[in-house]
Write a structure and sequence with these properties.
Helices cover about 25% and strands about 25% of the residues. The chain has a single domain (about 1-288), classed as Ribosomal Protein S5, domain 2, CATH 3.30.230. A hairpin with a 4-residue loop joins strand 5 (about 150-155) and strand 6 (about 160). Helix 1 packs parallel to helix 2 (about 105-120) and helix 6 crosses helix 7 (about 220-230). The protein has about 290 residues and is α+β, with helices and mostly antiparallel strands. The protein is built from nine helices and ten strands. The two termini are about 20 Å apart. Strands 1, 2, 3, 4, 5, 6, 7, 8, 9 and 10 form a ten-stranded mixed sheet that branches.
């Protein structure tokens, strides 16, 4: 499957936070959360090709302005070096379609695709649980992509319970604005005492994104886009933004709305899936 002569491209899917409740603040400064991570059938692609010699890790197209050592793809690969059982060098490429900093998990998903794939290439022999624990050191959203299932999340997002959701279509739209996750979670006006819910009690209408009011107050473009989407379907911000999403039963209707997005807004339509496209692609290789 992996060779010196060609690049093998693998999915790096997006996710949505169907809701995001902030239930408290931990002693280490992190927040105790509840959420549903909905995996989508759309995202970036990460390419793998066996290299000829050292160095062990080569990034073929690093993100402009980002030091290689700070790139989550490189950090994920570097984290597996102590576990590799062979001397394959690896060249990693990225086809980027997801907006950066939108709250849909692009960088975290890229890192997870690297962890899962290099565990195979390098014959590390790590379980998905072990890979998820390594991924947690890279970012709170990495474990859900490693485990590859739509999930109900607790803790800082790492305590995952796989769930099956009805198939829906999501229009995901991102305005031309950057939202700082650190600024949102550090803001004194962020709600931090939402009562916990049981997954059996979940319904979209009775949940919320606790970051949404603050972010829409700080960023008028997010507020205007969300109000526009609400005319068409139930809508909400994902993560700390800036991306927002609308939920449709019908793909054709979602595509129709996509065609009429306001100027300066980029978007896509994707199907919600219960199993990651990455895990489908590697079904014969994924460890238990």
């Amino acid at each position: 499957m992996f060779s010196h002569s060609k690049v093998t491209w693998l999915p790096s899917p997006a996710k949505l936070n169907l809701f995001l409740h902030i239930c408290g603040r931990l002693d280490n400064g992190y927040h105790s959360l509840q959420s549903i991570f909905q995996i989508l059938d759309y995202g970036d692609e990460v390419g793998f090709q066996l290299g000829q010699e050292e160095p062990a890790i080569v990034l073929k197209n690093n993100i402009e302005g980002l030091a290689t050592k700070d790139n989550l793809i490189y950090r994920a690969a570097h984290a597996l070096l102590p576990f590799r059982k062979n001397q394959h060098a690896i060249e990693i490429s990225l086809r980027k379609v997801l907006p950066m900093g939108g709250g849909i998990g692009g960088g975290s998903s890229n890192a997870a695709t690297v962890l899962v794939t290099l565990n195979i290439i390098w014959e590390c022999g790590l379980s998905l649980e072990q890979l998820a624990n390594i991924g947690l050191q890279l970012g709170a959203d990495v474990p859900v992509f490693v485990k590859g299932q739509t999930a109900f999340a607790n803790g800082v997002g790492e305590q995952l319970q796989a769930i099956e959701l009805p198939i829906k279509y999501y229009l995901v739209a991102t305005p031309d604005v950057q939202v700082s996750t650190a600024d949102v979670f550090g803001h004194p006006e962020l709600p931090r005492a939402t009562p916990r819910i049981c997954i059996d009690d979940y319904c979209f209408e009775n949940t919320a994104n606790d970051c949404q009011t603050l972010v829409t107050t700080m960023h008028s473009k997010v507020a205007k886009l969300l109000q526009w989407l609400l005319h068409y379907a139930p809508s909400r911000m994902t993560g700390t933004g800036a991306s927002v999403f609308a939920i449709f039963d019908n793909k054709a209707k979602a595509l129709e709305v996509l065609e009429n997005l306001p100027e300066g807004v980029r978007g896509f339509v994707a199907k919600g899936v219960n199993r990651s496209p990455l895990h489908d692609a590697l079904i014969d290789y994924i460890p238990d």
